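Retry 2 of 3 after timeout on previous attempt. Resubmitting structure tokens to design endpoint.
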């Protein structure tokens, strides 16, 4: 049944482009009347609308509230692995899918696949953080914590890919991240202010706030999820992401101790950037209501916004206290 669903989804994905090309061919004919052109135009319009809907749904799911790990940023842009089918990133768990419609399974499968890609990208993100901290002379405890966090993300990615495969009926796995191989980073030096600024800003926004929010969202999602596999998955992610957020605070403490005034100034500037961190307003997904999403671990929009605001306030208060203490000590 799972393989059959996967084949149906592939047919649906290919239907739009195929119908569009068919419409072009029909419209290009030279009939005795204008019927073919009219029919071809209708076919192209319907196929374009269909593909537009898929694109909208695809991007909508990318903004879903499923737990996400540390962002992999390359040349200022977030990166994830390419879509791929195969083995290598799965732990074998299977959630209950009986009673779900094909569209509901598609929604959940795509959401978990995207979450898996973000969790997978967090593995090299923590590796990059480890390299940066090593170059800046960080203590062994921070380096060890980075690698342990990367191993957490490996487990998260495997579990999320397993859920995506079970829901979608397709053997999703992690593809390549070619941009990662194209990077030519220059080792930072402790004397360079930009290195400390990037470290502090990334730790505050992606670590303290981002992973703090991910932990809260996963925890709340676990409390709503009816499936035991989903509930256990989100519970583990919530605990791990909370620990990763604390690691980010430890990194900031190290930066304030070693980076001096440049690190303190970077933290003050990063506090201003917190105001721009908001949960995007998500339109309703056709055929999937909030109760269904909540039963599958996805929080309603209003609660997501509330959690984000609470985490921003907590992050701002804690970071401001660090800067204030550092400033008084410096004076």
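Retry 2 succeeded. Sequence:
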């Amino acid at each position: 049944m799972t393989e059959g669903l996967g084949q149906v989804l592939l047919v649906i994905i290919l239907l739009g482009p195929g119908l569009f090309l068919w419409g072009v061919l029909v419209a290009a004919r030279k009939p005795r009347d204008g019927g073919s052109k009219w029919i071809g135009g209708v076919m192209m319009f319907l196929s374009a609308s269909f593909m537009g809907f898929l694109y909208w749904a695809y991007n909508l799911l990318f903004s879903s509230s499923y737990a996400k790990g540390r962002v992999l940023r390359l040349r200022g842009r977030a990166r994830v692995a390419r879509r791929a089918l195969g083995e290598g990133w799965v732990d074998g768990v299977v959630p209950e899918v009986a009673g779900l419609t094909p569209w509901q399974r598609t929604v959940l499968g795509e959401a978990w696949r995207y979450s898996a890609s973000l969790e997978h990208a967090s593995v090299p993100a923590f590796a990059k953080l480890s390299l940066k901290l090593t170059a800046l002379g960080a203590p062994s405890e921070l380096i060890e914590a980075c690698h342990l966090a990367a191993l957490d993300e490996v487990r998260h990615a495997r579990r999320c890919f397993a859920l995506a495969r079970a829901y979608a009926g397709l053997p999703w796995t992690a593809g390549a991240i070619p941009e990662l191989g194209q990077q030519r980073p220059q080792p930072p030096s402790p004397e360079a202010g930009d290195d400390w600024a990037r470290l502090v800003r990334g730790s505050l926004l992606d670590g303290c706030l981002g992973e703090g929010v991910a932990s809260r969202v996963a925890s709340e999602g676990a409390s709503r999820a009816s499936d035991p596999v989903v509930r256990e998955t989100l519970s583990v992610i919530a605990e791990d992401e909370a620990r990763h957020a604390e690691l980010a605070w430890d990194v900031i403490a190290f930066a304030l101790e070693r980076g001096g005034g440049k690190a303190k100034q970077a933290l003050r500037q990063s506090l201003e950037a917190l105001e721009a961190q908001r949960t995007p307003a998500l339109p309703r997904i056709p055929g999937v209501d909030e109760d269904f999403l909540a039963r599958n671990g996805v929080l309603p929009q209003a609660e997501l916004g509330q959690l984000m605001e609470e985490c921003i306030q907590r992050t701002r208060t804690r970071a401001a206290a660090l800067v204030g203490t550092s400033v008084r000590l410096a004076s």
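Attempt log closed. The two ends are 69 Å apart (CA to CA).
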